[in-house]
Design a protein that fits this description.
alpha/beta, nine-stranded mixed β-sheet
Length: about 250
């Protein structure tokens, strides 16, 4: 059985960004393989132990964070590790283009996976775009899955159960299992293992989404009922204009 894992760093680690006064500092040294991806990798290992096969891990993370999570995946038992330089997959302007390039890469290299796993940490748009490009099924919010591929899909109200039809992409939650811990020997071996590097070029290279927050200085207004009988009415109107009162 041939399996791929699209691995990501822990998105909500409170130590990734720190702020002091008006400066925000990024700390990639605090980024590790996400808990959801550890569980997804554990599931892949269980499948390959039963049905034989290999697990190829890909990441779109960059810099030292990419190498750290790939070495972590190798220590847990992944067969190969590939770092893909293509831009930010969380950027809505680049997401579909990167997914399209990844699909092209898989087809060009004749990489036909029975199952592509990814831990559910962010938007479903990226794995869904890959599934659409490959023409395979996509299962999201999987909260339980067994080695026969019977699954439980978590919904806001209730759940859906069924069996995955392969080939497929499956986005799993960390509730599917408890991942194994890597041994000291496997960690030592993984650190010295090679990582493949692949680069994609998008047609709009260098174009990214940007959110700019402009500081707004609000005018200070003092309402004095002794001087203005309509002061209360004016205050209510200003609060409504600012969305603070309905």
């Amino acid at each position: 059985m041939k399996i791929a894992l699209i691995a990501k760093a822990e998105a909500d680690n409170p130590k990734t960004y720190t702020s002091h006064k008006n400066k925000v500092t990024y700390h990639p040294e605090n980024l590790f393989l996400s808990e959801e991806d550890k569980s997804a990798l554990e599931f892949a290992l269980q499948l390959t132990e039963l049905k034989n096969g290999a697990i190829d891990v890909y990441t779109f993370e960059q810099g030292e964070a990419a190498e750290r999570i790939l070495h972590e995946a190798l220590a847990m038992g992944a067969s190969t590790a590939t770092k893909i330089s293509a831009g930010n997959i969380n950027d809505p302007l680049l997401q579909n283009k990167i997914a399209s390039e990844f699909v092209h890469y898989l087809k060009e290299n004749n990489e036909k996976y029975d199952l592509i796993l990814t831990g559910k940490t962010t938007s479903s748009a990226f794995p869904a775009a890959i599934a659409a490009g490959l023409g395979i099924s996509f299962y999201d919010y999987i909260s339980m899955i067994d080695t026969s591929l019977n699954y439980e899909m978590k919904l806001e109200k209730g759940k859906i159960t069924g069996q995955c039809v392969l080939p497929a992409i499956v986005a799993t939650l960390d509730s599917i299992n408890v991942p194994r811990l890597a041994s000291f020997t496997s960690l030592s071996t993984a650190i010295n293992s090679s990582i493949n590097n692949v680069s994609f070029k998008t047609s709009d290279e260098g174009v990214t989404s940007e959110i700019v927050a402009k500081p707004v200085k609000n005018e200070k207004i003092i309402f004095n009922l002794d001087q203005d009988p309509k002061a209360t009415q004016k205050l209510v109107e200003i609060l409504k204009q600012n969305g603070m009162l309905r």
